[in-house]
Design a protein that fits this description.
By secondary structure, this protein is mostly beta strands. The chain has no helices and 13 strands. It has strands at residues 4-12, 16-17, 37-38, 45-54, 60-68, 72-73, 92-93, 102-105, 108-111, 126-127, 131-144, 156-165, 202-210. The strands form 4 sheets. Strands 1-4-5-11-12-13 form a 6-stranded antiparallel β-sheet, with no helix packed on it. A 3-stranded antiparallel β-sheet has the order 7-9-8, with no helix packed on it. It is elongated and about 85 Å long. The model has no long low-confidence stretch (mean pLDDT 90).
Length: 211
Amino acid sequence: NSKLTLTTFYVLGFAHSNTDGAGTFPANQYDLSTEYGRAAFDVRHRFQLNGSYTGKWGLRISPFVTLASGRPYDITTGTDLNGDGLYTDRPALATDLSRPSVVHTSLGTFDVAPLPGQQIIQRNSAQGPGLIAANLRVAKIFTIGERALKPGHDPKQIILQVNARNALNHPNFATPDGNLSSPLFGQSNALVSGQGSTGTRRLDVQLRYTF
């Protein structure tokens, strides 16, 4: 209507592959049977809302909100068990908890030295944290002089605008470390990039004069 404009959408997505691109390698280049799994860009749920509302005193409020599921990531042993020169080997789900190669984690119990014939886990079997990005813009327009002008002439205006990036001050973490040999396994050591969601809350004030 004359005061409110709103756009929103929801996407349910499924994406599987046997590689994440030319820069990725299989766990065992001699056996590709376990490589088919969730693609690295497989975001299951994505919701977005944006719009503009003109309220009291002519304030224009424009939200931009994005919610998304976490992206999958690979769990690796951090060792080269098959001797192919790549440290991309994946563990198996532990079946004998007495073995010294068993590692207990919050994501499950893994055997980092699988026995012959033991089935290793699929590629990208873990899932990273979701995304919550809420940005907000508030603007006020002051028109200078007469409002009724000749056709083809724009009014003189002063526009005061405040932009809030990551308005909720919500930290969005990047994909966790999937290396079982790392002391940081399962932890994110960086923030996700893009979506206006990096870092802490940021406020920008802008003053613009148009004529």
